[in-house]
Each structure stands twice: as structure tokens, then as C-alpha cells.
Amino acid sequence: MATRVRPSSKRCAVIGGSGFLGRHLVEKLLDRGYSVSVFDIRQSYELPGVTFHQGDLCDKQALLPALKDVSLVFHCASPAPASDDRGLFERVNIQGTRTVIQACIEAGVQKMVLTSSASVVFEGTDIENGREDLPYAKKPIDFYTETKIQQEKLVLEACDKDKGFLTVAIRPHGIFGPRDPQLVPILVDTARRGKMKFIIGDGTNLVDFTFVENVVHGHILAAERLRPDSPACGKPYHITNDEPIKFWDFMSEVLVGLGYAAPRYHLPYALVYGLALLLWLLALILHPLVSFKPTFTPMRVALAGTHHYYSCDRAKEDLGYKPVVGLKEGIERTVQSYPHLRQGA
Ligand SMILES: NC(=O)C1=CN([C@@H]2O[C@H](COP(=O)(O)OP(=O)(O)OC[C@H]3O[C@@H](n4cnc5c(N)ncnc54)[C@H](OP(=O)(O)O)[C@@H]3O)[C@@H](O)[C@H]2O)C=CC1
Ligand SMILES: CC(C)CCC[C@@H](C)[C@H]1CC[C@H]2C3=C(CC[C@]12C)[C@@]1(C)CCC(=O)C[C@@H]1CC3
């Protein structure tokens, strides 16, 4: 009988490793002596120590070679929230995650770390210092959030000590940093179109923005602490900068850092949310005839006008988590990394 080679604990796979968070995670894993297998629908870079496997995570046969001799898998692939494509989210985040779990079990993977989102508990109303025992959103604010909830449940329920397959979920919030394709580029594009003059609501709402290296740190701690006797088995963990900031102060610091004016004039939250909802409905109805993507979606307005910050006490207690980069330094390094997005560039 052929004996199965136990995968080396320093060999891991990053599904979604070509993306923003995925690539930062791959770089840190290499620094820590891991060899990394990246699985992604696209290849965006090359690095020594990294083997790329290009494919769709919904295809188990494509996934299996990337998981060969791997003991630890990070799953951080998802369609971008801005796509708002229900069919795509269901296919990738729900069915695709089922396929990833099956492939991991079949390949003999021992640990899986999912990148979930703190938004799985967000319904568009205030969350202050939210802990992991908050219930999942009953009325998720968009298809992205709806499928991230299902995805997290699937992964946590798959944790099985008897079978030697351990899982944990990291819930980051508002990730930012160099190479982010979302937050800073959308913000700058909105400013360049003259639409960043207004503050939605009174501007006092507190929010978590998390520097990408802290999110990476949380993932690696969770992976390394995940053992059969660890409290992390089958649990979700909030990972933030642990420095909630006023949403509009954060936006202003990034904008001013890049040479744009900070928003000044206030608009009532209910008015903007109502308009955003109307526009979203119009875009939905007119979709077959004209295609337009409103900047101020109901999701973005809700995020811009409510409190949403989370406690990471559980991660501190169980994982020994502590942010490694403060918010001020994170913002400075982010601003420096976007010379091409500066005013006048
Ligand atoms: N950014 C944020 O603020 C937050 C993100 N998260 C979560 O973090 C994770 C990483 O996000 P982020 O780095 O920002 O996102 P990115 O879009 O930068 O990275 C995701 C990667 O997954 C790839 N991908 C998408 N669909 C598939 C598929 N079917 N098969 C294989 N690969 C696929 C993407 O390719 P392509 O680009 O071609 O689609 C991309 O390379 C996601 O799970 C997201 O839900 C959670 C909280 C906050
Ligand atoms: C147009 C302006 C009102 C807002 C511009 C900035 C926004 C693009 C970002 C502010 C908060 C961000 C955020 C996410 C995406 C980008 C923002 C809306 C997520 C939805 C990304 C995926 C998640 O899991 C949750 C994030 C919450 C914060």
C-alpha cells in the first residue's frame, strides 16, 4: 500500500493570491519561510518561491494540483463587491467555496483560513464595538454580503477535529493599503469628478479602516494558532486596526494627502440614502437598455453615514493579535504609494 506523504507545514496555498490582500499575504508568507502555491483566475505578478495555478475555484479538477502537498490553505478570493452580480456571487462565494472545501479534504489539507468580512453582521444600521456573537445580518445590504454570510457558515461548519480538517474565519473591515484597487481609486475618481464635496450625515460616525498588513498578520496568527486544542477551531475573528476613526476624517486625510480638497458641506443621510436607492432601482429597471453604475450606491451611503466598528478582543485573547501598523502610519504609507493618483498627476 502506498503511504501518503504528510504535507510540509511550511507549504501553503493562497486562493485569490493575485488580488490585493492575497498578494500582501503571499509576500509575508514568503518572508516567514513558507513556500506558496497561488490559485487565482488571473496571474498578476511573478515571485521566486511562488507557483502559480490559474483557474476558476469552482472547478475542483483545476484546484487539486494547487493543493498537492499543501497542509494550509488561505481562501481569500471573491468577486469585487462593486460587481453587484447576484449569479456570480452565488456561484463563486457559495458553490465555489463548497468546491474549495471538498478539494481541500480530498487533497489532505489540514487547515483552512477563510477571509470573511465584518460586514456579515451589518444591516445598514449602527454597529458600535460589535463582537463576534452578533447575529448574521437578517437583511444583508447587498448580494456580496448575503453570499459572504453563506460562505462563512460553510467554512466554519466544515471544521472537523476527528477528520483532521480545521477551519477558522477572519473578518476584516475596510482594508486599505498600497495596491488596493478599490477604496482609494474609487475615492479619487469621485473627487476628480467633483462629487467629493459633501459629507453624508453629521460626519461623526466612527468606522474601522484596517491597514492591509494588519489583516495579513491576523490571518497568519490564526493559521499558526489553529490546532485541535485551540479555541480558534470553527470560529470567526474580527481583525481591525483597533482605532475606530470618523469615516469622513479618514476620507479627508486620504484626499488631502493626495492633494484634493476635503469634503465640507453636509447633506442629510436619509435624503442621500433615498436618492441612492432610487438610482439603484432605476439602474436595475433600465439595465437591458442602458447600463450605468451609480457612484453612490445604497451600500456605500450606508457605510459612509453609520457607525460600524468592531471589537477585536477575541482575536487578542485567542490569537495574541495586536495591530502591527498604526492608522496614521498606514494612511501615510498608502498615500505615498499612489503617486499616479495625486491631484494634477
Ligand atoms: N477589500 C476590503 O475592504 C475587504 C475585503 N474582504 C474580503 O477579502 C478578500 C480579498 O479581497 P480583496 O483583496 O480586496 O479582493 P481582490 O478582488 O483584490 O482579490 C480577490 C482575488 O480573487 C480572484 N477571484 C475572483 N473570482 C475568482 C474565481 N472564481 N476563481 C479564482 N479566483 C477568483 C480575483 O480575480 P479578479 O480580480 O479577476 O476577479 C482576485 O484576484 C475577499 O474575500 C473579500 O471578500 C473582507 C473585508 C473587507
Ligand atoms: C463615494 C464615497 C461615499 C465612498 C468612497 C469610498 C468607498 C469606495 C469605500 C469606503 C468604505 C469601503 C468599504 C468597502 C469597499 C470600499 C468602500 C465602500 C467594503 C464594502 C469592501 C468589502 C467588505 O467586505 C466590506 C467593506 C466595507 C468598507
UniProtKB/TrEMBL annotation:
<dbReference type="GO" id="GO:0005789">
    <property type="term" value="C:endoplasmic reticulum membrane"/>
</dbReference>
<comment type="subunit">
    <text>Homodimer.</text>
</comment>
<comment type="pathway">
    <text>Steroid biosynthesis; zymosterol biosynthesis; zymosterol from lanosterol: step 4/6.</text>
</comment>
<feature type="transmembrane region" description="Helical">
    <location>
        <begin position="270"/>
        <end position="290"/>
    </location>
</feature>
<keyword id="KW-0444">Lipid biosynthesis</keyword>
<comment type="similarity">
    <text>Belongs to the 3-beta-HSD family.</text>
</comment>
<dbReference type="InterPro" id="IPR002225">
    <property type="entry name" value="3Beta_OHSteriod_DH/Estase"/>
</dbReference>
<keyword id="KW-1207">Sterol metabolism</keyword>
<keyword id="KW-0812">Transmembrane</keyword>
<keyword id="KW-0443">Lipid metabolism</keyword>
<keyword id="KW-0560">Oxidoreductase</keyword>
<keyword id="KW-0007">Acetylation</keyword>
<dbReference type="GO" id="GO:0005811">
    <property type="term" value="C:lipid droplet"/>
</dbReference>
<keyword id="KW-0520">NAD</keyword>
<dbReference type="GO" id="GO:0000252">
    <property type="term" value="F:3-beta-hydroxysteroid dehydrogenase [NAD(P)+]/C4-decarboxylase activity"/>
</dbReference>
<dbReference type="InterPro" id="IPR050177">
    <property type="entry name" value="Lipid_A_modif_metabolic_enz"/>
</dbReference>
<keyword id="KW-0753">Steroid metabolism</keyword>
<dbReference type="Pfam" id="PF01073">
    <property type="entry name" value="3Beta_HSD"/>
</dbReference>
<feature type="domain" description="3-beta hydroxysteroid dehydrogenase/isomerase">
    <location>
        <begin position="13"/>
        <end position="264"/>
    </location>
</feature>
<dbReference type="GO" id="GO:0006695">
    <property type="term" value="P:cholesterol biosynthetic process"/>
</dbReference>
<protein>
    <recommendedName>
        <fullName>Sterol-4-alpha-carboxylate 3-dehydrogenase, decarboxylating</fullName>
        <ecNumber>1.1.1.170</ecNumber>
    </recommendedName>
</protein>
<keyword id="KW-0472">Membrane</keyword>
<keyword id="KW-0551">Lipid droplet</keyword>
<keyword id="KW-0756">Sterol biosynthesis</keyword>
<dbReference type="InterPro" id="IPR036291">
    <property type="entry name" value="NAD(P)-bd_dom_sf"/>
</dbReference>
<keyword id="KW-0256">Endoplasmic reticulum</keyword>
<keyword id="KW-0752">Steroid biosynthesis</keyword>
<keyword id="KW-0153">Cholesterol metabolism</keyword>
<keyword id="KW-0152">Cholesterol biosynthesis</keyword>
<keyword id="KW-1133">Transmembrane helix</keyword>
